[in-house]
Every structure is written in C-alpha cells, then in structure tokens.
Design goal:
Layout: H1 3-19, E1 27-31, H2 35-41, H3 48-68, E2 72-79, H4 87-106, E3 110-114, H5 122-135, E4 142-149, H6 151-168, H7 173-179, H8 182-186, E5 199-202, E6 221-224, H9 234-245
Parallel strand pairs: 1-2, 1-5, 2-4, 3-4, 5-6
Helix pairs in contact: 1-9, 2-3, 3-4, 4-5
Binding site for substrate: 34-38, 51, 79-81, 83, 85, 202, 208-210
Cofactor: Mg(2+)
Binding site for Mg(2+): 33, 221
C-alpha cells in the first residue's frame, strides 16, 4: 500500500467513525455522470471505455452502501434522452449495461429494473426482465437499475397506468377526478412500494437532476461531487453521507 492509499484509508476510517451514530439514508439515488468526459480526459478515442470503467465502479458503490446500512440504491445508467446519441455509441453501451446487470445478478443483488423497457433493444430488455425475475426473492439491498429512464415519462406512465386501472373497473374519468390524490400516482411509479430517496448524488460537477426521480425527489437532499463517475471513491461516498447527516431535514419550504 502506497503512502497516498494509506492516508486515504485513514481518512475513510475517520469518516466512518463520525458516521457511526449519525442518520444514514435508507434510499440513495445516484446519477452516474461523467463517463464520456473521463474517457476523453484520459485521451481515449473510444468513449465506451469510459462507460465500461464506470460500470465497474457500480460494484464498489453497492458494497459501500451495504456496509453503511443503505437499503435501496437507484442507479441511473441510461436516460431516455440518451437515445439520440450515435448508433456506434449506443450499441456498445447496451452491451455494457447487459454485462453489468448479469454481473450484479451473479453478485447476489436484488435487481429491480425501472424505465421504458419498450424503448430498449429486445435483448437488453430481456436481460433486465430476467434479472428481475431471478432476484425477486433475494433479501438485502435492493438495486433499482434505471435504463431508458426519464422522470417526465415515468410520471406519464404512472398516470396512464392509473387511468387504465380505473377504466378496467368500469370507473369514469369524473369518478377518478373526485378521488385522485398524490398517493394514487405514487402507487403507479416505477418505485412503487419503496420509500422516496433520502439522498441523491450526482458526479462530474453538474448541479442539476436532469429529470432523475422528479416525483420522488421532492424532499430529497442533494450532493454534487466534482469527480467523474469512474473516479468516484469511497471517500467521496462517505463525504456525501457526512453531508447528509449534517443537514436538518425540513419537509417543506
């Protein structure tokens, strides 16, 4: 172990000690941003190598979350807005996502895909659906894998599902309007049955949600990290938890 690694390890232990008795978020959302910029900063012409490096980092994140006591992690791997990227970038990205999901299944995690799977290539959607079925009864940390995800589309899908449900019962629009409230919509989101994220982390220095968990993040705490996702370290994660623990959460203005 080099001196730098030794110093970082000491710092990690110090942060872990400070967090030992503090509040830990039950649900953490992560916008894994900066893979392409990392690849370019490293002088790589093939940006898929950045996506591959970032995908490997997810394994570390999940271990850190489990060690900290986090119960649910939502990882945004691909936005529905990303479908306008060149085909030569999307095809290897879908392959990386498939490999990542298979690895997470083999690693023993409980996988819950979320997003517009109908927009994905058939083989990618199949891998996600099979992962959900294969891990549905697993205990422990739940990993929401957001692929083809967009916050506005999620809300639209939730409303559409709600309307279909009431129509199947023979209810009219007027009857639905009389009883509709926020809980009805929440019951049809991709994360239905789960608590909303307590903490949302975004890497790469960007300070916006870009549509991530629009509905669910109404009362979330946000942490923005300068590091590109492939460079995200356990120290960065612990700093995010420290920032969360230091805040006085007020559910309102």
């Amino acid at each position: 172990m080099g001196l730098r690694d030794f110093v970082y390890r000491l710092y990690e232990r110090r942060l872990e000690a400070k967090l030992a008795n503090g509040p830990i978020p039950k649900h953490v959302g992560v916008i894994v941003d900066g893979n392409r910029r990392w690849a370019r900063a490293m002088g790589l012409q093939d940006v898929s190598r950045g996506h591959r490096k970032g995908a490997d980092k997810i394994d570390d994140l999940l271990v850190w979350c489990r060690e900290a006591g986090v119960e649910i992690v939502t990882v945004w791997l691909l936005s529905s807005d990303n479908f306008n990227r060149p085909k030569e970038e999307l095809e290897p990205l879908f392959e990386i996502i498939e490999d990542t999901v298979r690895r997470l299944v083999a690693g023993g995690w409980h996988i819950n895909p979320m997003g517009a799977l109908d927009l994905l290539p058939d083989h990618t959607a199949r891998v996600l659906k099979e992962a959900k079925e294969a891990t549905a009864d697993r205990p422990g940390l739940i990993v929401n894998v957001a692929v083809g995800y967009g916050g506005r589309r999620e809300i639209a899908d939730a409303v559409r599902s709600l309307l279909q449900e009431h129509a199947s019962k023979g209810a009219s629009i007027e009857e639905l309007v009389e009883v509709l409230d926020v809980e009805h919509i929440a019951e049809h989101l991709y994360t239905r049955g789960q608590p909303d994220p307590d903490l949302v982390i975004r890497t790469s220095g960007e300070q916006r949600l870009s549509g991530f968990l629009l509905w669910q993040s109404a009362h979330s705490e946000f942490y923005f990290c300068e590091a590109y996702w492939p460079d995200f370290r356990k120290v960065d994660f612990l700093r995010a938890l420290r920032s969360y623990a230091a805040r006085n959460r007020r559910y309102g203005c």
